[in-house]
Design brief:
Pfam families: adh_short_C2 (PF13561). One of its GO terms (molecular function) is oxidoreductase activity. Belongs to the short-chain dehydrogenases/reductases (SDR) family. This protein has a single domain, classed as 3-Layer(aba) Sandwich (Rossmann fold). The chain contains seven helices and seven strands. A seven-stranded parallel β-sheet has the order 3-2-1-4-5-6-7, with helices on both faces. Helix 2 links the parallel strand 2 and strand 3.
Length: 263
Amino acid sequence: MSLENKVAIVTGAARGIGLAIARRFVMDGAKVVIADVDDEAGEAAAGDLNSLGEAMYIHCNVAERLDVRNLVAETLNAHGDINVLVNNAGIVAGADFLDLEEDDFDRVLSINLKGAFLCSQAVARHMVEKVESGGAPGCIVNMSSINSVLAIPNQIPYCVSKGGLSQLTKATALSLAKYGIRVNAVGPGSIMTDMLASVNDDPAAKNRIMSRTPMLRIGDPSEIAGVAAFLASEDASYVTGQTIFADGGRMPLNYTVAVPDED
């Protein structure tokens, strides 16, 4: 699955799944633009990836239209093209429904959903212009979640944002199909990122995750990166409007699985 000489923007790529995707893309030959608001981590990530290929960092709050416009302009100035966009930037705000603050709801939706819309629209406009000038179409990969379908009562804005992102994926895929531009999503299950690392020290929490994961393990960010690389490659040239759930079998599960005791 080669991305040789493709130009890819990955939002929220200073750490976690976004960084794993950026790393995989660089290893597959892409020129990667890391977009994030954490300048220190973003610059460090770009510096690390430059030892493997070509990467650069651009500060961008995806919920701010002018930041997104600058991200697209700087990428085009640096590389002259954008072939792939990965909308990975996302945040959470946990609270029970009756206690959830309006500002927290708005903040999560602005990054997770509005940010994906703004980035997709800005990049797609460039991609459409290129296609109309005889160039090759690009693709967009959205970072969804099993929580686009399955709900968590104390993560309402996150679940709502991912549900909306599922429909954004389908609607934009239909809108852009006539240009050959593909739009798909990846729906991770439990992945070992910083947010989940604490379960390693909490046997009860880890057991709960395992009981709903038929493969009986937590996924690695690199496994999500592999799915994103497939969707960004020509191997997925006839795939659009789809969400691939990489969840260790959780989505089909209608029961809990027995978890072996650890030695």
